[in-house]
Amino acid sequence: MTSSASSPAASSFPHGFLWGTSTASYQIEGAVGADGRGPSIWDTFSHRPGATHNGDTGDVACDHYNRLDTDLELLSELGAGSYRFSVAWPRVQPTGKGPANPAGLDFYKRLVDGLHQRDILPALTLYHWDLPQPLEDAGGWTVRDTAERFADYAAVVADALGESVGLWITLNEPWCSAWQGYGSGSHAPGRRDIGAAVAANHHLLLAHGLGVDVLRTSVPGAQVGVSLNVAPIRAATDHPDDVRAARLVDGNQNRLFTEPVFRGRYPEDMLEHYASHSPGFSVVADGDLEVISRPIDFLGVNFYFPQVVAAAARRREASGAGFGIPVAYNHVAEDLGVVGVFHPEADRTAMDWEIDPAGLVELLVGLHREYGPVPMYITENGAAFSDYVGPDGAVHDRDRIAYLDGHLSALRESIAAGVDLRGYFVWSLMDNFEWAHGYHKRFGLTWIDYPTGTRLPKDSFFWYRQVVTTNAVPPLLGAGPGEGAGGDEPPR
Ligand code: FCB
Questions:
Q1: In this predicted model, what pLDDT tens digit does every residue of 60-105 receive, in sequence order?
Q2: Which helix (H) or strand (E) holds 457?
Q3: Which of 68, 189, 271, 389 has its CA 20 to 30 A from that of 246?
Q4: Residues 136, 173, 259, 434: which is the catalytic one?
Q5: Which of the listed residues 429, 435, 443 should we mutate to test ligand 1's pocket, taking the one with most ligand atoms within 8 A of CB?
């Protein structure tokens, strides 16, 4: 039997494969003072001078809170089977504890009902980084109480939305919360303390485990998972110091999460590396790892790019070996004694992230071998490019289509290699507040005109609509030079 890459069979996905898009509350909702919502660490952080690009904040964002109906229609138009969103904890419990705020819960009830009316499966993330500020004031993720408060919050959301949620995701990318929030300080709450980051790492995982327990009790039959930003970590050269550097980064980025969740233990090399940092792992109490390793129904994988690293002391040699200037030299990398490097020839997105779909295959196959047979969903994948609205009033984001096309091929390859992959969510349904990068980086399938809030589906939106309605990747059309308006060179 022969098949060509462009035949329908060769480009199609397993029956029932779930297609979706992702967003997160603080990145799209705006309306930060509406209906009793309390402040979150991202409100505080984004208002701190110099914390975000251009001083951007999520105060208004895409105004999704006030435009829910428009956005539900947008989702209908896309036709995807699922929508992943996050609940803003400070809308539901404005101070992070105590009774639920009915108006906050009502918003998510309306969202979930609107999704069901359109046959779209709600995929709900409980925590996508907007910690209620009062909890941060009491120590944030560095203290155990925050994990316990999370369990209470999970119970409130579970009781309100229960069976109507298709997929429950406890946490989004706890690595970012712990290591960017408390380690490098590039994200809220902006602390720069390695020992605090280790403690935050543990309490986030504990929150995950407690959340799983709550969901199992409150919503029998719930499908529960966690979304991790795991990535393949490659050594820039085969010099033992670079290989060691890559192993350390793999420990910090990947194994600090996968080992406790799947095997109920922290990796030895990480215990050793962080032993002298306080409070660090001293916060781990008896029984915590059993809670953290409660069985989950799926692993959410957020994939953007593989990382290439060298030993910090060998940054010059790494450049000599064909790799460019270190791209990530922050407090966390400094503590590990590593630098991130990039290949100067590689294609990159507007985030400077290397485009390498083969990295996704490597990642999924590796996870499957190590922790299989856990089912997986890609809960985020996508790219920022320098989009613009062309003279014809459309956004011809050919780069994004090519990026997504490459990664969908990687999914098919991974499935063929035996990975139990159940679905895929594009980051993001719409342009939004890209954290410290503000509104400057656009990841959406939909263009947002921020001054007016107008939604304009980009070419990638219509391309993805074809993917989700046919359960297959259409052949790439118009990829030749001069076809379409590009998306690579904005007009001056
Ligand atoms: C991920 C975040 C998501 C978005 C993408 C680009 O790390 O989970 O909110 O910012 O990156």
A1: 999 999 999 999 999 999 999 999 999 999 999 999 999 999 999 9
A2: strand 454-457
A3: 189
A4: 173
A5: 435
